[in-house]
UniProtKB/TrEMBL annotation:
One of its GO terms (biological process) is maltose transport. The lineage of its organism: Bacteria, Bacillati, Actinomycetota, Actinomycetes, Bifidobacteriales. This is Extracellular solute-binding protein. Belongs to the bacterial solute-binding protein 1 family. InterPro entries: SBP (IPR006059). Keywords: Signal, Transport. It comes from the Bacteria. Residues 1-30 form the signal peptide. SUPFAM superfamilies: Periplasmic binding protein-like II (SSF53850). One of its GO terms (cellular component) is ATP-binding cassette (ABC) transporter complex, substrate-binding subunit-containing. The keyword Signal applies. GO terms for molecular function: maltose binding. Gene3D superfamilies: Periplasmic binding protein-like II.
Length: 412
C-alpha cells in the first residue's frame, strides 16, 4: 500500500522568490497552485449553481488565492460514502461527506485522513462542552477523523396543553397526565433507558470492542423491571409504523419520541398546541435517571490518497466551519452541530433546533461506529419485543436481562 498522509499540514510554507525575480506568491493568480478537487455531497447541497456547496466553494476560493481550484462535484449521499470509498480509496473523492457510524469502516480501509492541528483547534472550539459530537469523529486509535457538519439524534414532541414545564422533565409525570407513545420495540430508542442508568456500549467512549455490551447486573435488571411497569401503564402506547404521530392528530397520544425529520408532521398534527424538548428523566428505584439517546453526526472528511492533502483538509474544515454551518441552516434548514450557533439569532428562534442541540450536548451518548456495533441492534430489538409481548415480567426480568447480555458475548 502506498504511503499515506496521516496528518495534513495546516499551513502553507512561505513562498520562495524565483531566480528571475518574480513578485512574491499571492500577488497574482499566475502563481497559484492549480488543482482539481473532487467533492462528494448530497444532491440537495449541490442542486444548482446557487446551492450551498457551490457557494461554499466560491467562498473557500476567495479565502485561499494560493489555490486555483477546478471543482468536480459528484452526488454521493453521506449514507453511501463508506460503501463506495472503502472499495478503492485511491479513486474516491478528495473531500466527502459521511455518516459518523461509518467512521470505523473508513478508518479500517485507510480511506479518511486525520485532522490537522488547525482543524483540531476548530473542532475543539465548535464542540466545547459537547463530548458526543467530538466522540462521533474519534476512532479506536484515539485520533480524530473528519469534522461534524450536523447532528443526528431524537428527542421529544408533546401536546403543550397537557403538561407543565416541570412535567416535561419527568417521563413518569407525563405518564400520569397523558398518553405517552414510545418505540419500545426499536433498539435505537430502547437503549436510552439502559444508557441513562449507566450502561455502556464498548466502553465509555464506544470504541473498545472488548468491553462489549454492559446493560446487565443489578442496575440492568432494575431498568428492565421499570420497562415491564412502563409496558403495563395504561397511558403507555408502543410507537410502531408512525402510530405515535398519527395519534397526535387523532388525540390518542400526547407525547412522541422522534427527530427533526418529523417536525413538520408534528406541527401539522398539533397546530399551535405543539411543543418540543430534550429527553426527560425516569424514576429508577426512587432515583431520577436521565434518559440518553444515541447521537451521531454528518461529517466531512478528506481522503488520505488525495494529491492535495493540505487543501483537502482545509476545505473539509471550511465546509464544517461556523460560517458554513450557519449558511447550511439558512439555506437548507439543516440544524448545525456547532455549539457556538446555539445562541445564533436565527437558530435560537427555532425550538426544534434547540431541542436537538440540547439533547446532543446534555442527554445523549455517541452511537459507536466500530463494526461490532452491527451485532447490537437485533438482540436489543428482540428483547424489547419480549418486554412488550409480556414474556418478560418481574419474576424473570433479572434472568432474561442476563441472557440478553450472554447473547452479545456469543456474538462479539
Amino acid at each position: 500500500m502506498i504511503a499515506q498522509w496521516k496528518k495534513a499540514t495546516a499551513t502553507i510554507s512561505a513562498c520562495v522568490m524565483l531566480v528571475a525575480g518574480l513578485a512574491a506568491c499571492g500577488s497574482s493568480n499566475a502563481n497559484s497552485e492549480n488543482m482539481t478537487l473532487t467533492v462528494w455531497a448530497s444532491q440537495e447541497d449541490q442542486a444548482n449553481s446557487d446551492s450551498w456547496l457551490q457557494k461554499m466553494e466560491q467562498e473557500f476560493q476567495k479565502k485561499h488565492p494560493e489555490y486555483n481550484i477546478t471543482w468536480n462535484n459528484q452526488v454521493v449521499a453521506s449514507a453511501d460514502a463508506a460503501t463506495i470509498a472503502k472499495q478503492d480509496p485511491t479513486v474516491a473523492a478528495d473531500v466527502y461527506t459521511f455518516a459518523s457510524d461509518q467512521l470505523g469502516t473508513l478508518v479500517q480501509a485507510d480511506a479518511v485522513g486525520q485532522l490537522s492541528d488547525d482543524a483540531m483547534a476548530q473542532l475543539d472550539k465548535q464542540t466545547a462542552g459537547n463530548k458526543t459530537m467530538k466522540d462521533s469523529v474519534t476512532a479506536t486509535d484515539g485520533n480524530v477523523y473528519g469534522m461534524p457538519l450536523a447532528g443526528n439524534t431524537w428527542f421529544m414532541y408533546y401536546r403543550k396543553s397537557k403538561f407543565t414545564e416541570q412535567d416535561l422533565t419527568s417521563l413518569d409525570a407525563m405518564l400520569a397526565k397523558g398518553k405517552v407513545s414510545f418505540p419500545m420495540t426499536n433498539s435505537w430508542y430502547l437503549a436510552s433507558f439502559y444508557l441513562g442508568a449507566g450502561g455502556t456500549l464498548f466502553g465509555p467512549n464506544g470504541t473498545d470492542a472488548k468491553s462489549g455490551v454492559q446493560f446487565g447486573g443489578e442496575t440492568g435488571a432494575a431498568v428492565t423491571n421499570y420497562l415491564v411497569d412502563l409496558r403495563a401503564n395504561k397511558n403507555f402506547v408502543n410507537d410502531v409504523n408512525g402510530s405515535g404521530l398519527a395519534g397526535l392528530k387523532s388525540g390518542k397520544t400526547d407525547v412522541v419520541f422522534t427527530g427533526n425529520w418529523d417536525a413538520a408532521t408534528v406541527r401539522e398534527n398539533l397546530g399551535d398546541d405543539w411543543g418540543v424538548a430534550q429527553l426527560p428523566s425516569f424514576n429508577l428505584n426512587g432515583k431520577q435517571v436521565q434518559m440518553r439517546a444515541f447521537a451521531g453526526s454528518t461529517v466531512y472528511g478528506w481522503n488520505p490518497y488525495t494529491k492535495h492533502p493540505v487543501a483537502a483538509d482545509q476545505f473539509a474544515a471550511f465546509l464544517t466551519s461556523t460560517y458554513s454551518q450557519r449558511q447550511h441552516y439558512i439555506m437548507r434548514s439543516v440544524i448545525p452541530s456547532d455549539v457556538e450557533l446555539a445562541t445564533d439569532k436565527e437558530v435560537s428562534k427555532d425550538p426544534v433546533a434547540q431541542a436537538q442541540m440540547d439533547t446532543i450536548a446534555q442527554t445523549s451518548v455517541v452511537q459507536p461506529s466500530i463494526p461490532e456495533m452491527n451485532n447490537f441492534w437485533s438482540p436489543c430489538e428482540n428483547f424489547g419485543k419480549s418486554i412488550y409481548n409480556k414474556e418478560v415480567n418481574h419474576s424473570n426480568a433479572a434472568d432474561l436481562t442476563e441472557r440478553w447480555m450472554a447473547t452479545y458475548k456469543s456474538l462479539m
